[in-house]
Amino acid sequence: MNEPIIECKDLTKTFSSGAEVLRILDHADFMLERENICTILGPSGSGKSTFLAILGSLERFDSGTVRVDGYDLHMVPEKSLSVFRRNVVGFVFQFHFLLNDFTALENVALPGYMAGISRADAWEKATKLLDLVGLENRAHHYPSQLSGGERQRVAIARALINGPTIVLADEPTGNLDAASAEEVRSLLQRLPDVAKTTLVLVTHDSALATIGNTSHLLKGGHFECIK
Amino acid sequence: MHQIKADNLRPLSFLGFRFLFGKPAQTQEAAALHHVRHSAFWGAVLGIGISIVPLYIVLFVSNGMIQGITDRYLETKTSHLQLSLPFNLNGETREKIQQDILGLQDVTTASFEVDGIGLAASSSGSISAQIRGMDQSVLKDEGFTKFIQVDDGAMFPERQNEAVLGRYLAKALGVNAGDTVTLITLRSSGGDEAQMLPKLSIFRVAGIVSSGYRELDANWFIVQSETALRLLNPSTAYTFIGIKTMHPYGAELNTVASEIADQMARAGLSGIPGVDVRSWRDIERSLFASFSSTKSILILIMAIAILVASINLASALTTYVMEHRTEIAILRSFGVSPQQTAAIFLVGGAATGTLGCIVGSAVGIFISFYINQILRGVQAAINFVLKLWVPALHPMTLLNPDYYLEHIPIHINWNYIIFILGAGIVVSALVSLVPAIKSSHIAPAELIRHEQ
Ligand SMILES: Nc1ncnc2c1ncn2[C@@H]1O[C@H](COP(=O)(O)OP(=O)(O)OP(=O)(O)O)[C@@H](O)[C@H]1O
Ligand SMILES: [Mg+2]
What we know:
The complex is a heterodimer of chains A (227) and B (452).
Chain A lengths: L3 E14 L2 E14 L3 E5 L6 H8 L7 E6 L2 E2 L8 H7 L1 E4 L11 H11 L4 H14 L15 H13 L5 E5 L7 H18 L2 E5 L3 H4 L4 E6 L2 E4 L2
Parallel strand pairs in A: 3-8, 3-9, 6-7, 7-8
Antiparallel strand pairs in A: 1-2, 1-4, 4-5, 9-10
Chain B lengths: L8 H13 L6 H51 L2 E5 L5 H12 L4 E16 L2 E10 L7 H6 L1 E5 L8 E5 H7 L6 E9 L7 E15 L3 H4 L2 E5 H7 L6 E8 L6 H15 L9 E4 H4 L1 H39 L1 H9 L4 H32 L1 H19 L24 H18 L1 H8 L12
Parallel strand pairs in B: 3-8, 5-7
Antiparallel strand pairs in B: 1-9, 1-10, 2-3, 2-6, 2-9, 4-7, 5-8, 6-7
Helix pairs in contact in B: 1-12, 2-10, 2-12, 2-14, 10-12, 10-14, 10-15, 12-14, 12-15
The structure holds adenosine-5'-triphosphate (ATP) and magnesium ion (MG).
């Protein structure tokens, strides 16, 4: 499978605060093949999170083309972005962002249920995913009853419920202690195999950075392939 | 293209309910915490409920009052139709007319009455009296006997020199059944240069009655019609046949009225001055106009109260949306569309409103249903407390019987209930549009730069 799942050409993204224009991405090119793990490194403020947000259609860009799993993101109308997010991408953030009023199982099932899967199917799928992340016995616990590492693993299970082709993870171990980070790391490493997804991973954690098949450094608005 | 399908509504309401009313409690502490966190919603539910309660009470009580007062007017005084007659119409003609009217379909009774003004006096003072000269036949009128309560003695004077007094007239004169009262009327002296002369007559009080509404019976001085014909002045007295029918509130009343008018025309009586058929709606027009305008104003005030409660709901929801931007952004990040987030808050808002309306309706209907007992209880409680403070105090009444019925007849009208519930739900869904639209503007990009 040599067809790229992510293809960015001439990608430019600026933020203007007042008179000042911040050029975060400056005619950047980026390419990634299916079922790979790609780590993105770079100094703080270089635009790594912004880039992930663009890939996940959370953020718009100024110019260039961004093609993700066949969707030309510049061309997708605002209204259809929900469909893209629902079907193509799964997010894992530095903060787990689980809904506090829902159990682990409900948190995982919710995106599926909201996407139109029947309740029984969504709950069944969520149970399997909790099994996958090793939390089958915590299904009925609320986020406040879970450890940081467990919450992050629930968040990873949630990202997988709609069978995304890409998982975008932004410093998923940033808030975790070493032991929890290790659990999350080994889980992420298995994702392309067990969930047939491509993983784009932004991290400062050098141990986590080693799981990438490829690695890019974002600096000065450009990507530099370092692995 | 994404659209909200019907089968998509279930997950939305699952989310909406959980957001607004919280998770099922796991532990005691969690339940307690939860109440605090979501109290804004229970507050909104309560606010709507509380604003709806008086609406029901006002509607049912004012309707019951108006209905009760109307019934009393119609049954004890005005009758459903009145055929006015000349004062000096001879008795035979009058009886013939009465018989003809009784032959009409729908007519139940037709009683002759002569009304006029006089001054009633006793050793304790004098007071103006509304003289009602009536026929014994009213005792066969079930409407009349149903509403007339006899405090003392008889309901109707058996002899020419007997009178039955309204409760408050008797009280003002300080008389009981068996006592005597003097009635002063004005009567022309007769002859060409007619002069008004006062005429004094002495009556034995045969009974004391009440219709349950003081406005109506305060000055009643009931005598036999022959007596009234002797005492009253032909130029100021009012002579009529009071007619009762089976359907006083229906359109049938007009049919009966025109049939009577036809009969009068056939009998060659229609051209005579003073002969006229009128319905209770015409006779008591101003009274009922003032009732219904009072009711409209009350309902308007209540509607404003509901609107205020709905705005409270909208502001509670808006605050909630603003405090939960992150959670909404999370939903958006995993593909929940702006329309879906809006729908969550619409469903949640409408549910909150509906719950409030149902609770308020239940309480409002309950209180309305037992309003008489509740008022009596409250009155007794107040009087008990007041008595402790000032033992000499006269017991107070909450509803002044001069203007209100002593017992409010309450009929639960399902149309009102359906209307209030429906309007409450629609209004709360409408005001929920504001937070719903606000929630749809929250962008998921916020998550990227979220500070924990
Ligand atoms: N909405 C915005 N308006 C203005 N500037 C912004 C906005 N969002 C991000 N930036 C700026 O864009 C730059 C890139 O931000 P981004 O969060 O992508 O960096 P990052 O590489 O993820 O950094 P970190 O490693 O610290 O997370 C930063 O300098 C930031 O201040
Ligand atoms: Mg970042």
